[in-house]
Design goal:
The longest helix has 14 residues. The model has no long low-confidence stretch (mean pLDDT 97). With 263 residues, the protein is an alpha/beta fold. It is 44% helix and 17% strand. An 8-stranded mixed beta sheet has the order 1-2-4-3-5-6-7-8, with helices on both faces.
């Protein structure tokens, strides 16, 4: 399905019981809504599940300009409005988790709860050049130049060896990412910093992180937890950055338990 929202066309999928509470899912940089394939069956039994391709990803519009996290959060808010959804539980991984924090700050009435997965509340200043180098590599050599390094951060070598079909699917997802969208979202991530603001978020918050996540390590999740009064945090043993895939079963159980308490 396609929706016109915030000046772009957003590709989305809405499944589950029409009268159930909505859970909105937001994916990582260089991903698509397919990142959530391992969560859909577990969620849509009890919830109306809305997942979508972020600006610059999948089959959503990919304008070639710098994006901001506020812009990406406005996309999410506009999609909810276009679908006449007043409120949703919001779950985001990595970039999606950053977007979720911005959405909760900008549109607090639209967010029932937040599930922040393998993400951060601030990108360190010393990594800004790294983001510029990733953009340059993608623009000069395409997404293939970044795929191996991304896979090494996202899934452990053991998981990739044991599940080559899943690893290949994720690899192809990265390769298919529009360079313009990747570059735009890199700039949004590079400039992201809500550390001093997120104490204002008053909805229930669950933080999930893979124990061995090299992209947004456990310390970054602890930083979010410490800045938010009452936030829960769960660390999933041995998982890398895509903890929702590598540790799907405990991830899904953790999410189910949290959401059940919000009803």
């Amino acid at each position: 399905m396609q929706a016109e929202a915030n000046g772009i066309k957003i590709h989305y999928e809405l499944t589950g019981p029409a009268s159930a509470p909505v859970v909105m899912l937001s994916h990582c940089l260089a991903g698509t809504m397919g990142i959530w394939d391992f969560q859909i069956k577990a969620l849509e039994k009890q919830y109306r599940v809305l997942r979508y391709d972020l600006r610059g990803h999948g089959t959503t519009s990919a304008p070639d300009n710098d994006y901001s996290m506020e812009m990406l959060a406005s996309d999410a808010a506009a999609l909810l409005d276009a679908l006449e959804i007043q409120r949703a539980h919001f779950m985001g991984i990595s970039l999606g988790g950053m977007l979720g924090q911005s959405l909760a700050l900008m549109h607090p009435k639209k967010v029932s709860s937040l599930i922040l997965c393998d993400t951060a509340c601030k990108i360190p200043q010393e990594t800004h050049q790294d983001w510029e180098e990733r953009i340059a590599a993608a623009r000069h050599n395409g997404m293939a130049a970044l795929t191996d390094g991304t896979m090494q951060r996202w899934l452990s070598p053991e998981f990739q060896k044991a599940h080559p079909d899943i690893a290949e699917k994720i690899r192809n997802m990265i390769l298919a990412t529009p360079v313009a969208g990747f570059a735009g979202c890199c700039r949004a991530i590079r400039d992201f910093d809500v550390k001093d603001k997120i104490s204002r978020i008053s909805v229930p918050v669950l933080i999930i992180v893979g124990e061995n996540d090299p992209g947004t390590p456990v310390e970054m999740s602890q930083e979010i937890r410490d800045a938010m009064s009452g936030a829960e945090m769960v660390t999933l043993a041995q998982a890398f950055h895509l903890s929702n895939i590598e540790a799907a079963e405990p991830f899904n159980q953790t999410v189910a338990d949290f959401l059940a308490r919000q009803q």
